[in-house]
Design brief:
Blueprint (H helix, E strand, L loop, with lengths): L1 E2 L5 E6 L2 E6 L9 E3 L6 E6 L5 E6 L3 E6 L6 E7 L4 E6 L5 E6 L4 E5 L5 E4 L3 E3 L5 E5 L5 E5 L5 E5 L7 E6 L5 E6 L4 E5 L5 E5 L19
Antiparallel strand pairs: 1-2, 2-3, 3-4, 5-6, 6-7, 7-8, 9-10, 10-11, 11-12, 13-14, 14-15, 15-16, 17-18, 18-19, 19-20
Function: Subunit of TORC1 and TORC2, which regulate cell growth and survival in response to nutrient and hormonal signals.
Family: Belongs to the WD repeat LST8 family.
InterPro entries: MLST8 (IPR037588), WD40/YVTN_repeat-like_dom_sf (IPR015943), WD40_PAC1 (IPR020472), WD40_repeat_CS (IPR019775), WD40_repeat_dom_sf (IPR036322), WD40_rpt (IPR001680)
């Protein structure tokens, strides 16, 4: 689940479908409903200008989708060896990080087609200087992208499997979703929980952070 860069639409993906909803409309019907997918879609996001969308799925691929028309179509496909669990676009808009079930992170340079892989669910901060991983070990961890050293471990005694994560626009806070049915807002600097959001009856498996960083 992800909000488009212009904050006008919400994209939600699941088993064999991608749907986009108008956030300003009272209608529950999607404005785009694409169902031509063979397996579960596990990750999605957008290029900063909203020209294209990327997805990852259990078909062991990452895909680039052209959004310049309402007829969604795949323009690029990146094949890996295991089902994709997460995907994130670097702030430089050129490198797509793809994580799979075997524990490998693939770095795909979309412009040059250069490819490499790392052995480390992760997300880049807006500056590109940090990334955060989520895990079945009940933690999320913040890493420096310069040398991939660990900065902070986000751990709370009642937390269970951490499924998804999102940075705030200023990269000062992180929100996580967990199998204990709670979303938590964390301070990146201190690693402390600033707020908990409860009320869900089952695990929180997707997070979208709608905030805007205004120039000072």
């Amino acid at each position: 689940m992800e909000i488009t860069p212009n904050r006008q639409q919400l994209a939600a993906a699941g088993y064999q479908h991608i749907r986009m909803y108008d956030l300003k409309s009272l209608s529950e019907d999607p404005v785009i409903n694409f169902e031509g997918i063979s397996k579960n879609v596990t990750a999605l996001g957008f290029q900063e200008d909203g020209k294209w969308m990327f997805t990852g799925g259990e078909d062991s691929t990452a895909k680039i989708w052209d959004l310049r028309s309402y007829n969604l179509h795949v323009s690029r496909i990146f094949q890996v060896n295991s089902p994709v669990t997460c995907a994130c676009l670097h702030p430089n808009q050129a490198e797509l990080f793809v994580g799979d079930q075997s524990g490998v992170i693939h770095i795909w340079d979309i412009k040059t087609e250069h490819y490499e892989q790392l052995m480390i669910n992760y997300l880049d901060s807006s500056s590109g200087s940090m990334m955060v991983t989520t895990s079945a070990d009940h933690t999320a961890r913040i890493w420096k992208t310069a040398d991939f050293s660990q900065m902070t471990e986000l751990n709370e005694s009642n937390q269970r499997w951490v499924w998804d994560v999102a940075f705030s626009a200023d990269s000062q806070h992180i929100i996580t979703g967990s199998s204990d049915n709670v979303a938590r807002l964390w301070s990146v600097e201190s690693g402390e929980v600033k707020r908990e959001y409860s009320g869900h009856q089952k695990a929180i498996s997707a997070i979208a952070f709608k905030d805007v960083l205004y120039p000072s």
